[in-house]
């Protein structure tokens, strides 16, 4: 543990501990308000733009799941964190280009942003060749049915971006395990309305794929609404680690 990532400054550790306590309290309150068991909701710490040392510190505070949205940054960070002897579960949550899948399958435990049959196929080929067990996959849903910002379209039979075809492709891929759905509330939408619609999409999806129960929804600004509508995973960045210097 002589690697730089292991050297967590005490003031930063205290700051992260305080952020974590606040976020955990919000999650617990939201579960109580929704009549849900706290153990049903996993918090993913979204560490994009923050250093490996923060991941190491968060792991020391009991955080088990980490999210990243850019391959280049995530690959380097995962390497540094592993060198410090820490092994969180890495969730890839950003837009993913097919030329990055070989890299992503080396460190990611879960890819949450699969939104086309072509991407699912590329991940399957890479995971089959490069991993010793299947890669967990969440299919990303576009709540407003506008695939421009990523996500599959519910109720679309479009063979490349329809939720049904993409989920079927993941379910049939030997290198992948269909674990559930992920979504981001569309800009300008009231979170209650967005996650209410998502819950309906998830219910229909689970009638086709009963094992795929994960629902990744909710971020720093809207995790309460997401938990109220059945989220099993919330992805929390700024409320935990502080405001990022640039929005992305
Ligand atoms: C950055 C990001 C988050 C975390 O956002 P915060 O508002 O900082 O909590 C969650 N999900 C995705 C897909 C992200 O890119």
TrEMBL record:
GO terms for molecular function: pyridoxal phosphate binding. Keywords: Pyridoxal phosphate. InterPro entries: Ala_racemase_N, PLP-binding_barrel, PyrdxlP_homeostasis. It comes from the Bacteria. The keyword Transferase does not apply. SUPFAM superfamilies: PLP-binding barrel. Residues 24-245 form the Alanine racemase N-terminal domain. It holds the Pfam family Ala_racemase_N. The modification N6-(pyridoxal phosphate)lysine is found at residue 48. NCBIfam families: YggS family pyridoxal phosphate-dependent enzyme. Pyridoxal 5'-phosphate (PLP)-binding protein, which is involved in PLP homeostasis. HAMAP family: PLP_homeostasis (MF_02087). This is Pyridoxal phosphate homeostasis protein. It comes from Micromonospora craterilacus. The lineage of its organism: Bacteria, Bacillati, Actinomycetota, Actinomycetes, Micromonosporales.
């Amino acid at each position: 543990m002589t690697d730089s990532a292991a050297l967590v400054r005490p003031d930063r550790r205290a700051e992260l501990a305080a952020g974590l306590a606040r976020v955990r309290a919000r999650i617990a309150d939201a579960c109580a308000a929704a009549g849900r068991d706290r153990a049903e909701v996993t918090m993913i710490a979204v560490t994009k733009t923050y250093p490996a040392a923060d991941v190491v510190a968060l792991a020391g505070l009991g955080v088990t799941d980490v999210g990243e949205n850019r391959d280049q940054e995530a690959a380097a960070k995962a390497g540094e964190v592993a060198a410090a002897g820490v092994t969180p579960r890495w969730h890839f949550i950003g837009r993913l280009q097919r030329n990055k899948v070989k890299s992503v399958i080396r460190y990611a435990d879960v890819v949450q942003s699969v939104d086309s049959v072509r991407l699912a196929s590329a991940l399957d080929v890479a995971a089959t060749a490069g991993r010793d067990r299947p890669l967990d996959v969440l299919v990303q849903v576009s709540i407003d049915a506008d695939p421009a910002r990523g996500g599959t379209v519910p109720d679309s039979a479009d063979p490349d971006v329809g939720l049904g075809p993409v989920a079927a492709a993941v379910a049939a891929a030997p290198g992948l395990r269909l674990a559930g759905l992920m979504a981001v509330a569309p800009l300008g939408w009231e979170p209650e309305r967005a996650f209410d619609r998502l819950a309906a999409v998830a219910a229909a999806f689970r009638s086709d794929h009963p094992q795929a129960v994960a629902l990744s929804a909710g971020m720093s600004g809207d995790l309460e609404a997401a938990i109220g509508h059945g989220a099993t995973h919330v992805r929390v960045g700024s409320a935990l680690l502080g405001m990022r210097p640039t929005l992305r």
